[in-house]
Hints:
The complex is a heterodimer of chains A (about 550) and B (about 950).
Chain A: H1 2-14, H2 19-29, H3 33-42, E1 54-59, H4 62-66, H5 69-79, E2 86-91, E3 103-105, E4 108-110, H6 115-123, H7 152-158, H8 163-177, H9 189-198, E5 205-210, H10 219-226, H11 228-242, E6 246-251, H12 256-271, E7 280-285, H13 295-302, E8 326-330, H14 331-350, E9 359-366, E10 372-377, H15 382-388, E11 398-402, E12 411-412, H16 422-427, E13 436-441, H17 446-460, H18 466-483, H19 490-505, H20 509-513, H21 516-537
Parallel strand pairs in A: 1-2, 5-6, 5-8, 6-7, 9-13
Antiparallel strand pairs in A: 1-3, 3-4, 9-10, 11-12, 11-13
Chain B: E1 10-15, E2 18-23, H1 28-34, E3 58-59, E4 67-68, E5 79-80, H2 85-100, H3 107-110, H4 116-123, E6 141-142, E7 148-151, H5 160-168, E8 174-177, E9 184-187, H6 203-207, E10 213-215, E11 229-234, E12 243-249, E13 254-260, H7 272-276, E14 291-293, H8 305-308, H9 321-324, E15 328-330, H10 333-351, E16 356-359, H11 366-380, E17 385-386, H12 389-392, H13 394-404, E18 421-425, H14 429-432, H15 434-445, E19 449-454, E20 466-469, H16 475-488, H17 494-500, E21 501-502, H18 504-511, H19 516-523, H20 527-539, E22 543-547, H21 549-552, H22 557-570, E23 580-583, H23 590-595, E24 602-603, E25 607-608, H24 612-622, H25 634-643, E26 648-652, H26 656-659, H27 663-672, E27 675-680, E28 692-695, E29 704-707, E30 712-716, H28 729-739, H29 749-759, H30 768-771, E31 776-777, E32 804-805, E33 824-829, H31 845-850, E34 855-858, H32 860-866, E35 873-877, E36 882-889, E37 897-901, E38 914-917, E39 924-925, E40 929-935
Parallel strand pairs in B: 1-5, 16-17, 16-26, 18-19, 18-22, 19-20, 21-32, 22-23, 26-27, 27-28, 33-37, 34-36
Antiparallel strand pairs in B: 1-2, 3-4, 6-7, 7-10, 8-9, 11-12, 12-13, 14-15, 14-28, 24-25, 29-30, 30-31, 33-40, 34-37, 35-36, 35-40, 38-39
Amino acid sequence: MRLIRELFRLQQKHGYLRDQDLTDVAGRLGVPLYRVEEIVSFYPHFRTSPPRKTEVAVCRDLSCFLREGAEYSANVRALLNGDDEVDVHEVSCLGRCEHAPTALVNGTPVGRVSPEELVHRARNTDRLPNVGLAQPHRWRIDYCGERGSRYSVYSDYRNRRDAGSAADEIVATLKETGLRGMGGAGFPTGLKWELVRKEAATPKYVICNADESEPGAFKDRVILEELPHLVIEGMCLASFVIGARKGFIYVRDEYEPEQRALKLALDDARSRGVLGDHFDIETFVSPGGYVMGEETALLQALEDRRGEPRNKPPYPGHKGLHGKPTLINNVETLALVPAILRNGAEWWQSQGVRGHAGLKFIGVSGHVENPGVFEIQLGTTIAELMDMAGGVSEGRSLKAFAPGGASSNFLPASKANVEIDFQSIADEGSMLGAAALVVIADGTDMIEVATNVTRFFRNESCGKCVPCRTGTEKVVTMLEDVLAGKGNGSLLDMLPDLEETLAETSICGLGQVALGPIASVLKYWGEEMNAHLVRSETP
Amino acid sequence: MNLPQESTQTVTLIIDGRTVSVPAGTTIWDAARQAGVEIPVLCHDPRLRPVGVCRMCVVDVGERVLAASCVREVAASMNVVTNSEKVQNCRRTLTELLLSDYPEISARERTTGDDLLIDLANKLQVDRDTIQLPSGNGRGTDSSSPVIAVDHSACILCDRCIRACDEVQHNDVIGRTGKGYGSRICFDFDVPMGASTCVSCGECAAVCPTGALVNRTLTTPIRPRADLRTIDSVCPYCGVGCATSYHIDTEANTIVFAEGRESPASESRLCVKGRYGFDYTKHPQRLTAPLIRREDAYPKGPLSSDVKGETKKRPGGLVDYDEVMPAFREATWDEALDLVASRLKAIKDESGPSTLAGFGSAKCSNEEAYLFQKLVRAVFGTNNVDHCTRLCHASSVAALLETIGSGAVTNVFADVRNADVALVTGSNTTANHPVAATFIKDAAASGTTLIVIDSRKTGIAQHADHFLHITPGSDVPLYNAMMHVIIEEDLVNHDYIRDFTEGFAELRALIDKYTPELAQGICGVPAATIREVARILGQANAAIIFWGMGISQHTHGTDNARCLISLALLTGNIGRPGTGLHPLRGQNNVQGASDAGLIPMVYPDYQSVASSEARKKFEDAWGVSLDPNPGLTVVEIIGGALAGEIKGMYMMGENPFLSDPNVNKVRKALSNLEFLCVQDIFLTETAEFADVILPAASFFEKDGTYTNSDRRVQVGQMALEAPGQARLDWQLVCEIATRMGYPMRYGSAEEVFAEFTSLAPSYAGLDYENLKPTGKLWPCPDPAHSDGKQLLFGDGFPTASGRGKFVPVDYQPAAELPDEEYPFILNTGRLLEHWHTGTMTRRSKALDAIQPEAHCQMNPEDLQDLGVGLNDYVKLSTRRGTITLKARPTNGVSRGNVFVPFHFREASANTLTNDALDPFGKIPEFKFCAVKVEKA
């Protein structure tokens, strides 16, 4: 953490990392020069040349792409033509998909504004409007209606004399609910807590994975902003169960306003005495990159290394941060725990519909009227959720949807009645993943969509293992050739082998799923690929 | 500490239908290998920590996805399928992905031919020409390193080089830069390899499986191993004694490339000298015919301008043969040898045997050292025989013999891996014993607390937990203060002191006054740090002590070593794993040359010439009566030559003109000799003073044994034919002896070795057969079944009392302290790329390219004060002489200090050094004299 934090500090101070600063920091921290290079060149946050006065970062990924993000970006560039004080660059998903196409001006998010307004703000950075946080909702999981009762679940457990059986009760309750991790992989939460609780090695750590970066995903961001106290309480409960004294919230760089909300909540928790004596939490700001959401890549970053996922096993619960048992849970998972413990497993089970149990936060973006985050009952159908979001935008009809963001396979409109639940969606050949419903209206070129998504994985591949590093690049090149009218059949020939190889041999989930979306597009919309190839053959 | 973890649990699993039982923690890949199932890999090498990045080794274990077998540990009842259709299909696709970006013909295919990616493609029947994937645009090449060619397009990012550099050699240069498909390997801050901190050890190229990092051609173009002849041997340079394989183009009679070979001493590692410094043997300046000084080249004196001492500014370099060769004429062997024999005999007859002397060399074999001292003792009739051990560890040996009764190391350097604490002092280990340093660095990285104490902050200090930057020459007060703390805080090992030592009371009495505060005032290390480090040593379960010339080359060098020995005795750190005293030996055979009796006071195996019993033994063996008086040492012999007391000399492979202190004095002394015969592979600076020059075969052109710093006796095998008329050193010694009337006839070096071992009990039982392939540590009572005795003196010492003796010593300042006129302190030593007087290394293409010129190193602030800029010259003067050379700034040298490497004839450091001697070891004070620095 020392090295990355030091690099943050130096970049903050000088605007960029100067050669001499890098040499000095290596000497000061006693790390070889190459280690500094590895970090600086890997993480997108770091830069080694001076920035212009204003940096505009425009999102290029799925939800923004569907909302004409490419044209938006081009328009901004055209309007800025010749302005050497403003630098515009396209970046990976910013996690503000409800405002697509979305951008940052010097790190500050701007809502959905016209290209002209964006340019105006870029030229007047001293008067950037404060980002208004979302309208406060009343969330069902926020068991503490007024501030006074915050952290009462944790305090009750902490005050129990029989800490051992109290912790066992928590594990039992979580297991009874069948709660699964909400980060995407869906590992049973009670079991995970139990496994780390049983580990003998110390110290142990609790880490909240707040590195939400999946294109289309932004529900954790809203939880961080509106319910940070529940995230903190969830971590406290986890620390109580596993026996940790130290916790970290690994939060993405681009969630700057949310970091402020988090800080206020942490200060509040400390002033209430919730944090401090038994357990405390530090925030670690990610230097960037989608793959950092992969839990072992995240650990690598915390250990001042390139965010390259580790081979598993060992899993973090056994050997995590600094080789010690580490419980890593997603923001939403942690935020759900206090309400579950307050209200009991039965309450949780009663929250679902159609035989499903529990609640779910889900972000809805793309071609819908009212994109946003919804706290739904599990078992709600995709169609119902789309209705909550005002239906497909501009009265268009539904063509396709991705239920779990860019890494989930695309499903056709005919599947819109699928019930939202890990297993139900898996049964349809996709996944709930990061709970990011991306809606695609009729008239959208699915090959372009697939290219956008595959390009995202190519851009975000860490490069550690061969299949992901080279496979994503090759497929993107072949897809771009197809779109440019230069395609041949090799993609269709090679894709089954490539998809199998990436899925079977990549170290982490990124590579394993990277070619799933394009494969699903070819499965349901193969004729669109053929049309492109016919166009390629036509002189 | 890396103590091997004993695994008691066994796991049984099924691999391709076979039931296999292995210890828990074994990887599937290793388990399969044990079961005879080879799983293909690119990124894995059994010498390296597995990383599982190439994914070629995936196997089906019945899980959601395939598992990388090189990193996945076995589990009970796992059912592993290593080559299902899915697995094979994935491997083929991975290979196609890599080949789609691969150069048409890789550099490895063009050179050694062992490109593992291409081999794998052939095995999997992947046809490069029919791959349907788009090909990459190439990622560039880097030819900035003189020894390694980089082709990023052939890099598959297997990370082998990264692990070799950072985890095997611990040079910490190579990493990954960029991200995703744009990732590349990088050197430091992604600078060209040649501009990086790379020390050119070549480990990266040695482990690279593809054409990304390959060795560049040094002699004839590199060809596949199968087309070349391979000879297993050892490295000719330092005392580490790395095991090597030389790949030889027989037709061109040249080594094409060198590789490290498995051995306990080096674990297949090499440094830049060992891997790339072999081509000197083919240099056009090799001597190929006997030379006799022409009549008109008398009176004798220096010939080349550098040796004459004419100072001038120039980049420097080798001797100009046009300046020196006209003074000599070629002769036949008979004429030359007869002349040598008759002149030496005449001097002996006219002036007495004690006016003759011989310098052998620690670069020659045990056999040659043995025969050389036999010649001087039995034929010349004097004990005036010595060699460069006098200039390196004579004081260490004096102290060791005095205190523990044996001059050799008590433990091997690789055992640092079992030490809790390692103390490295007065040793620039990364430059002078680079492969031994890898073991120390590795231990430090694995938990051994490394304490480095030095007056310069050198490479090994970068790896230290505690670095004590001391004032030059202040070792004794520092170590006395550390012992003071250990005694005061009762961290001594009482049982050990009671059972195995003597003189503790005397030590305690003297140490009493050496408080850390007193020492702080002399050595400049804060008292609190002295206390902290003393406690770490005192509390260590196992501590090992390494030292180098920074300890020994002082007028108080013996005292310095006595302190280190006392420290080990005080804490009981001798004779157990992870403990010991290890003076790191400089030359490849300085241990062996000393063992063989190339020392004026002792016969082979340290049997004293003053002992009538020992003398009788050798008189009987050699059939002559021997001189009972110990002979003169190196510097005394040079002094004797100057005084006219030494009249005739025979030098085999020594170059005292550059290696001995006070060159201006040496010049006069060598000019003053009535007769000098120099036997060497090049016309050295010393040879300019010769009457006869005998061309010798080089290391690579002969068989012989060499004893490394660990006491490991290893066989060096003949790889090349000697050029022209050059002959083996030992045969020339025999010729001279025979022509002087003492017939010496041996059929082979092996026969000489047999005679030597029959007279040297420590070597008893060793022969060429049982020494292969990786040598034996002496003593080795059971060579058929044992590697020899690694740990010595666990149960007492070979002293009269059987105890180790504390020899308490007081602080003595250096012989010549800085003053107003000569305000700086001069320190001399070596560089990684060069060897001693540069005779070999400056004629090695790669080594010369990396480090081509004479320079000194100074603190940047001192240079700034003197107005000396980058690449400016400075003039260094002492009371003995002046040299002019470039100055390089480095923070490793403290203010007020100057460091001068002594390899460079055009600015010979020893022009400046002080020939004051340590009274016990007779070693000169190379590490300290007063010097003046001026901008030139």
